[in-house]
Amino acid sequence: MSTVMQPRSETGDDRLVIDGTAYQSRLLVGTGKYRDLDETRRAIEASGAEIVTIAIRRTNIGQNPDEPNLLDVLPPDRYTYLPNTAGCYTAEDAVRTCRLARELLDGHSLVKLEVLGDEKTLFPDVVETLKAAETLIAEGFRVMVYTNDDPILARRFENMGCVAVMPLAAPIGSGLGIRNPYNILTIVENASVPILVDAGVGTASDAAVAMELGCDGVLMNTAIAGARDPVLMASAMRKAIEAGREAYLAGRIPRKRFASASSPIDGTFF
After folding, report:
1. Can you tell me whether residue 243 is helix, strand or coil?
2. Is residue 112 annotated as a catalytic residue, yes or no?
3. Which of 8, 14, 20, 125 lies deepest, with the highest CB count within 10 Å?
């Protein structure tokens, strides 16, 4: 069973643990698509996220000394950086990108692996993703892997040694929400590493549903950066993650076809 299925400890500690490090926030956010770095900073602060993803191929973290540097507004001593391989379509490109990230971030080994299949759907190419994961794990990377919502593949990535599995809720940037909740639930129920929904979240209710299913966390970018007010949406997502997690831990009532009175009439005096 997934660690997420365990009850809150006697001390009340319910932190997200990834690769041995504990985090208060279960919301992970991307750093792309904002109007400028100031909006990036304000939105991420409002989200409460402690882990931020960066697309190494698209984001300046020191490669271009004459351009604005993300590290200046999101200091690495405050945030855990999660380099990702966005834009990679082959295992070779993904591995090369992770090696570059490790060099730029002084040996940082935690990475988000994604290898895309085509430009229209941005669905993962699972064959290339498996190849890349095998190479990266052998080289000492700690891999959080983006994949489709197939429970069999999720288990295979876990067995390979990925430190977290990140099934999509829907296509990247689509905002469609969780299309296959029972697949996600099956993945969660059979995992012993963190399961984080990645891609497809559109609004706060989508994030809450993911958490109510028992996911350990949610990663999003477009849902916040593409909103009319990204800072306000970031705040909404923060609250949704917290509410969904609490609802999951509390245990919802079972669904029934018919009414069940809130105030039973048995034992009344008239």
Report:
1. helix
2. yes
3. 125
Q: How many residues does the chain have?
A: 270
Give the 3-state DSSP-derived string for 221-232, with helices as H, strands as E and coil as C.
CHHHHCCCCHHH
Place 197 in a pLDDT band, splitting at 50, 70 and 90: very high
State pLDDT tens for residues 18-42: 999 999 999 999 999 999 999 999 9
Please pick, among 33, 112, 120, 131, the residue that the annotation labels catalytic.
112
DSSP-derived secondary structure for 180-207? -HHHHHHHHHT-SS-BEEES---SHHHH
> Does residue 126 come out as left (phi exceeding 0), alpha (psi in the -120 to 50 range) or beta?
alpha
Judge residue 91's burial from the number of C-beta atoms within 10 Å of its C-beta, 0-12 exposed, 13-18 middle, 19 or more buried.
Answer: buried
The 10s digit of each residue's pLDDT in 113-153 is 999 999 988 999 999 999 999 999 999 999 999 999 999 99
